[in-house]
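Why do we care about 3D structure at all? Because function follows from shape, and shape follows, mostly, from sequence. That is the central idea of this module. The next example makes it concrete: a single protein chain, its amino acid sequence, and then its structure expressed as tokens.
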Amino acid sequence: MEITLFTNLLGAFGLGAASGLNPWIPLLGLGLAQRLGVVELSSSFDWLGATPTLLVLVALFVLDLIGDKVAVVDSVLHAVGVVIAPASGAVVFAAQENLLSNTHPVLAGGVGLVLGGTVHAARSVLRPAVTATTGGVGNPVISAAEDVVSTVLTVLAVVVPVLAFLTLVGLVAWAVVVLRRWRARRLRDRQARAGAARGPGGFTGASDGSPSTPAPGPPEWP
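And the structure:
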């Protein structure tokens, strides 16, 4: 029982994180796994494997898959994802058999909600950086990579939960490194622009060719 609970918990973390990248993939994957008898969900979430639910999830997944590759539509989807991603994380986290029976439903759903929302927020922070550096050209590539990672996390969470959790830890470490490097680069660029505007010796030059004047210093007090 303890081992099953532990593996289900690790799988729930993987599914919750996958929801932050693409909210429909883990829901669809978990529903298909339940339908095929690969996993056993809590009785409160049997509807995930129902045919109408699966058809709706497939349609939403296709719409998201296409729309997230379009420059304007992806911004709308990200705004909607602020609500959808945490909700998806709450569902897939709380749906795990044994996890819900050993944990208060509100607590299980709350953890999934926070996890899905956090990953989606991190995704929203990284995406503008890609847009700024590539002029929007790299957005479809990043979107496709997010879909692939979400799919991999979902499959691993169902088949090998421990590996899904380790993959999640690695992705978090990678995201932290990328974000820190991006922030350091922005800081260096700002300092370089400030230095170029100030000129040598602390002088600021005018663009119209007028003589340079010293940069204003601190006021002198009597």
